[in-house]
């Protein structure tokens, strides 16, 4: 997946004040966090949601997680980001929650059989369960 351009990333950082950033822009602990960020920036650019809508949905997701026991130490921020992305995609009718679960499970299967450092490739058998 192509990362968003620097201007789009900085615009997102300005619109979302709780986004982990440094002087170069958003900060990610793992590659999947950058991919989740890029997907949200791309979907925003395509008009799926506004940044205020995103910020409200993300705040709601974080609040629900805290109520359920998330200690909010900063290491779960992008897990909330991903959950928010999945929720908005389902609510907007882009993909159903079932389809998202099916693909997440397929990625888990594909990752389990992929040697560390190699690209993960989905195969039809990954969807078999």
Automatic annotation (TrEMBL):
What superkingdom heads the lineage? Bacteria
Q: Do you know which Pfam families this protein is assigned to?
A: NHase_beta_N (PF21006)
Q: Which residues form the Nitrile hydratase beta subunit-like N-terminal domain?
A: 22-106
The record's annotation in InterPro entries points to: CN_hydtase_beta-like_N, CN_hydtase_beta_C, Elect_transpt_acc-like_dom_sf, Nitrile_Hydratase_acc_put
This one is known as: Nitrile hydratase accessory protein
What is the organism of origin for this protein? Bradyrhizobium ontarionense
Taxonomy of origin reads: Bacteria, Pseudomonadati, Pseudomonadota, Alphaproteobacteria, Hyphomicrobiales
């Amino acid at each position: 997946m192509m990362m968003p351009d620097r201007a789009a990333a900085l615009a997102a950082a300005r619109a979302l004040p709780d986004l982990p950033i440094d002087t170069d822009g958003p900060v990610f602990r793992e590659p999947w966090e950058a991919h989740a960020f890029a997907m949200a920036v791309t979907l925003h650019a395509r008009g799926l949601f506004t940044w205020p809508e995103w910020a409200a949905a993300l705040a709601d997701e974080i609040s629900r997680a805290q109520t359920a026991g998330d200690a909010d130490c900063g290491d779960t921020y992008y897990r909330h980001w991903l959950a928010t992305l999945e929720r908005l995609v389902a609510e907007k009718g882009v993909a159903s929650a079932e389809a998202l679960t099916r693909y997440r499970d397929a990625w888990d299967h594909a990752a389990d059989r992929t040697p560390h450092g190699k690209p993960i490739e989905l195969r039809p058998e990954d969807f078999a369960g």
